[in-house]
Amino acid sequence: MRNYLARRLLGMIPTLAVISVLVFIIIQLPEGDIVTSTLDRLSATGVDLSDDRIQNLRAQYNLDQPLPIQYLGWIGNFITGDMGFSYLFARPVNELVWERIGYTLLITVCALIFTWVMALPIGIYSAVRQYSIADYSFTTIGLIGLATPNFLIALVLMYLGYSWFGLSFGGLFSPEYLNAPWSWERFTDMLSHLWIPVVVIGTSGMAITMRLMRANLLDELKKPYVTTARAKGVPPLKLLLKYPVRIAINPFISTIGLLLPALISGEAIVGVVLNLPTTGPLLVQALIAQDMYLAGSLIMLLSMLTVVGMLLSDLLLAWVDPRIRYERT
Amino acid sequence: MSELRELTPGQLAWLKFRRHRLAMIAAGSLIFLYTIAIFCEFISPYTPEQRNSRAINAPPMDVRFFDAEGQFNFRPFVYDLELTINPDTWMREYEEDASTAYPIRFFTRGEPYEFWGLFEAERHLFSVDPNGPGYIHWFGTDSLGRDVFSRVLYGARVSLSIGVVGVGLTLFLGVLLGGFAGYLGGIFDSAVQRMTEVLQSIPTLPLWMALSAALPAAWSPITTYFGVTIILSLFGWTTLARQVRGRFLAMREEDFVVAARLIGANDQRVVFRHMLPSFSSHIITTATLAVPAMILGETALSFLGIGLRAPVVSWGVLLQQAQNYQVIVMTPWLLLPGAFIVVTVIAFNLLGDGLRDAADPYSSLRQQ
Questions:
Q1: Each residue of B266-285: pLDDT tens digit?
Q2: Which residues 261-320 on chain A approach chain B with CB closer than 8 angstroms?
């Protein structure tokens, strides 16, 4: 297990390196750089900087260096925990990001759990009662969930919530708790808002998870050991849960890797619609204003979150299924 | 068996596909949607930017056959809308006025348009009498008095074509990279494999957002359209490349490939003449299943305001108007483009399922 862990940890490094290069390219994409855009804003307010000051500014951001050096400077700062300065909010990127990424993580993890809690039993039921009316209806609902963009589900929920119950969704907190310090009441208030984004984001992954569980279990149910166990008189429910489900669930853990990027993507857009204090709306604002240090750092962090999530799922899988630990890759 | 008939694999696949009823329905709906998209200028009663100042935020109008007395009319008609301002909320409220009916006419003259950008025309499939005061807004109007139905049709052209064009690009990249990886093996193979892993572990939407936000705002609509399409397919080829690679690896050892190589066929001939045709059906299936991701991607980007931008009309751009809940509560019909997205995506999924079964026409015949 320790070998496996070491190998996987080492394997993460090139992945993260490639991602960081991609992100750096993205930061460079918009025309002009942080200094020219600062100058533009300053001259719009009637302030003109001397050439010396401009040179100093450029040196401060390493802009007078060739690109590879700039990259190393940026990634070096990033690793040591300095993500630069957001001119859009006139605050360090660190502060902006840390106050939001926790909520992103919370919502994503809850959405993942929601997907599983809903999809696993449904998948098992659909496999056991293959071609029943319930099987078909679950497949249909799953298909609709797959086909509906996340933000559309959120919009429709908002409409229904308002026209049926007179509720206005949005945000993670009621107005009175928005800036209140953490307390039990604030926590429960958050939970009462949290389920909406969790359901909206979780629905999109449900179809694929349900299908996978159903297919895996169907394969397993055909195997001779199931027939043998049934012939020996093992009670059906015990038989089902003790053997085939346990095996069918294994490849499932590996779907974390499949679901996680989708969930994080989904969160980015649902956050905008539901006005959540997460990284999604921040990213959109940063991109529209071309505040590239903020945008780049956010993309980098979200990718890291995914990569680490995948690592955890692989470790979990290796822990559950010893065959994987010893497999040579 | 009295008569032995030989069916080509194509005929077998078609027979099998036809048995898949849902896939047939899906194929029918897609043909319908694409036809509408192709002829949208003609089918829509108005042009997308045409404003009706007398119907702002008007709700969808019912097309009727029975009038107020229950009398059946062969020619369908719509009632006039009467505008009142609610004294409490200051909101516009529309009510049908059963005393004035506007019959629907076909092939009417209306706002001139350029058909496919080729020639000027002014005939529309249907509308009410263009010289009269009436109007028809089947899906209602938006805050500028533009006809939502017409805009949905024009949006169909952009949203539906971006899926196909994007998948075309994806297909090209996927088959090229996956094919070479599987056929050549070695360093190139591992490079493509690592690249695939990296790309699959990045949440795509933030990356799409970053790249399309970087598209210069000064670009013309058509350039932006292709820019967004390229961005969408840049990260979409990985699944296809994996499949193609797997197939190539498996097929490299097949007898017919070895035989072809022994006869002296060069690499190019082996790949394009012998290997690609034998799994082209699988490629088509995967491509069909990849279209929805493209459409959803474009929709999401445009919805956020960093993909396609007005004056381009796409389903995502249309939904952007319905971003906050005051708008949705007041004018829920602005969500109608969403219904088209859902139907399209479901249809592509069902079609893909049907094609997957049909792609291997011998599988179930062997079982039977």
A1: 888 888 888 877 777 778 88
A2: 261-262, 264-266, 268-269, 272-273, 283-284, 287-288, 290, 295-296, 298-299, 302-303, 306-307, 310
Q: How confident is the model at residue B364 (pLDDT cuts 50, 70, 90)?
A: low
Chain B residues whose C-beta sits inside 8 Å of any chain A C-beta: 194-195, 197-198, 200-207, 209-211, 213-214, 216, 292, 296, 299-300, 303-306, 319, 322-323, 325, 328-329, 332, 335, 338, 341-342, 345-346, 349-350
Neighbours of A69 (CB within 10 A): 11
Residue A158 · residue A151 · CB < 8 Å: no
Q: Tell me, what's the ipTM?
A: 0.81
Averaged pLDDT, B57-61: 84
List of E strands, chain A: 85-86, 91-92
User: Is B203 within 8 Å of A31 when comparing Cβ atoms?
Assistant: no
Residue A288 burial class via C-beta count within 10 angstroms: exposed 0-12, middle 13-18, buried 19 and up: middle
Rounded to an integer, the average pLDDT of B294-307 is 88
B315-345 residue pLDDT tens: 999 998 888 777 888 888 889 999 999 999 9
> What's the mean pLDDT when you consider all of chain A?
82
Q: Which two tokens stand for residue A182?
A: 């953490």
Please state, in angstroms and as integers, the Cα–Cα distance from residue A166 to each residue in A161, A171, B57, B324, B325, following that order.
6, 16, 22, 15, 12
Question: How confident is the model at residue B1, as a pLDDT?
Answer: 45
Give the burial class of A27: count Cβ atoms within 10 A of its Cβ; 0-12 exposed, 13-18 middle, 19 or more buried: buried
**Nearest to residue B165, comparing CAs of B114, B97, B93, B222?**
B222
What the block records as the tokens of B173 is 């990249």
A113, two tokens: 């759990």
Ordered structural domains, chain B, with CATH: 50-146 (no CATH), 152-362 (1.10.3720.10)
According to the model, what pLDDT value does residue B339 have? 92
Q: Distance between alpha carbon A88 and the CA centroid of its chain, in Å?
A: 24
- How far is it, in rounded angstroms, from Cα A4 to Cα A318? 8
Beta-carbon contacts of residue A52 (< 8 Å; ≥ 6 apart): none
Residue A164 is encoded by which pair of tokens? 């049926």
Q: Given this model, what pLDDT does residue A327 score?
A: 57
CA–CA distance, B314 with B162 (Å, rounded to integer): 10
pLDDT tens-place string over residues A143-160: 888 888 888 888 888 888
